[in-house]
Design a protein that fits this description.
Order of helices and strands: EEHEEEHEHHHHHHEHEEHEEHEHHHH
Number of strands: 12
Strand content: 15-25%
CATH class of the largest domain: Alpha Beta
Number of helices: 15
């Protein structure tokens, strides 16, 4: 990647066949290539209908062309979009013509976005938000991605970096002019008061990282309990289809099954697990072991037990985010021994269960700016630690150096400082054509 002298092209729209296929070109030869295919180009940023022709002059298609002269384009380079009819044959023929032109090549994964980053059109937080926006499947994933891809989160990090820069400037002034009256002593007090506030803001932001992870990767709800408690029946009822096999035979579920559900814009991942009990069956033992691991990693645990059950299981489940459910309500009736009583057969209590899960989710994320990638969290922790060292230090020059390190960590989040080694990893996660 990073051969910026090349002009690149790729399909930037959806899977073929489709009603329209958008082929994007970017680079110094983009306009020349478009001219070779379509003749005279339309006015910049105005769509024009043109016949797309091969080298021998035969018509491949009629398409709309839009030209975006750099630097006012997505990549910061000259860009062209060909809005073709979306057949595989048409796109393949256009690819063949473009490949035959000098200095043109097919784009690599994420190369358009990487050029946008390298040309200052996007920072890394915005790039990651764009990737999340493209892959968003739920409303909350879309909202979180919009905050990142449209620059809201970057503005926050830049404002913190600016405060650190101003603090360092005042400290340097105090060091340089300590014997003069130009820098009053109260300035230093104001600087460290602001740095204390900044430390609290970063820590509060870090505390919301789990919310970002949940919105992006899903809220993990593990259905646990003894055999024949109705775990698989509940999974099927929530999914509204047969995901798991349901029988009266204890130990039917041997492995973990899961289904993803969009719950009012939140991605919720329900996991059905093997019944928790002592067993001599080696396969079932492995299922119980995996169930225990899933329980440890859960955001919420639904502990199921048949109402009025005589079984004396001791599951020893964590008490945090645990909801005890009495099952087979249609058979036994309501019992006060549970947080909620349900019937997977009739659907009684399932709406209340969804409501309880939504309550937890809305407490987790309120729509505020949150870090949602491990890379961001890592550098935020480094910045927080550096600010803490500055606040607790004694030598003024060392404290100033700690603030410089904090600003550097924030710069790495947005890509303004020393992130070359991360770029291939980040942009390889994009699809071709973006």
């Amino acid at each position: 990647m990073n051969r910026t002298e090349d002009t690149i092209f790729a399909l930037s729209s959806g899977t073929l066949p489709a009603g329209v296929a958008v082929v994007r070109l970017s680079g110094p030869k983009a306009f020349d290539a478009a001219t070779a295919l379509a003749g005279d180009l339309p006015i910049a940023r105005k769509a024009g209908l043109r016949a797309i022709r091969s080298r021998n002059g035969s018509v491949i298609d009629q398409a709309l062309l839009v030209c975006f002269p750099g630097p006012a384009s997505f990549t910061g380079e000259d860009c062209v979009e060909l809005h073709l009819h979306g057949s595989r044959a048409v796109v393949s023929a256009v690819y063949e013509e473009l490949s035959a032109l000098p200095s043109l090549r097919f784009a690599e994964a994420g190369e358009f976005s990487r050029r946008a980053f390298e040309n200052g059109k996007l920072d890394l937080v915005e790039v990651e938000g764009l990737a999340d926006l493209i892959s968003a499947e739920t409303e909350m994933q879309r909202r979180l991605a919009v905050e990142q891809s449209f620059g809201g989160q970057s503005v926050l990090y830049r404002s913190w970096a600016d405060r650190l820069t101003r603090a360092r400037a005042m400290i340097e002034a105090e060091l340089d002019f300590a014997d003069e009256d130009d820098v009053p002593g109260s300035v230093s007090d104001r600087v460290w008061l602001d740095m204390g506030d900044l430390y609290a803001e970063i820590e509060q932001h870090l505390g919301s990282a789990k919310a970002g992870e949940i919105v992006r990767d899903g809220y993990k709800v593990v259905i646990a309990g003894p055999p024949n408690a109705g775990k698989s029946s509940l999974l099927n009822a929530l999914a509204k289809r047969d995901v798991a096999i349901v029988t009266e035979i204890a130990g039917t579920t041997r492995d973990i099954l899961h289904v993803d559900i969009d719950l009012e814009g939140y991605l919720v991942r329900f996991f059905d697990t093997a019944g928790l009990r002592e067993t001599g069956d080696l396969v079932e033992q492995e299922g119980v072991r995996r169930a225990r691991i899933a329980i440890e990693q859960a955001d919420m645990i639904l502990e199921l037990e048949e109402i009025d059950s005589v079984s004396k299981h001791d599951a020893k489940l964590p008490s945090t985010n645990l909801l005890r459910l009495g099952t087979k309500l249609d058979k036994h009736g309501v019992s006060p021994n549970y947080d909620l009583c349900i019937s997977s057969r009739t659907g009684e209590g399932l709406e209340q269960l969804r409501g309880r899960i939504l309550e937890e989710l809305r407490r987790v994320w309120t729509g505020s700016l949150v870090p949602n990638r491990q890379r961001q969290v890592q550098y935020l922790k480094e910045a927080s630690q550096s600010v803490a060292e500055a606040l607790n230090g004694r030598e003024l020059d060392i404290r100033a150096e700690s603030l410089r390190a904090a600003a550097s960590s924030l710069g790495r989040i947005t890509g303004h400082v020393d992130v070359e080694q991360l770029l291939d990893v980040i942009f390889s996660q994009f699809c071709i054509g973006k």
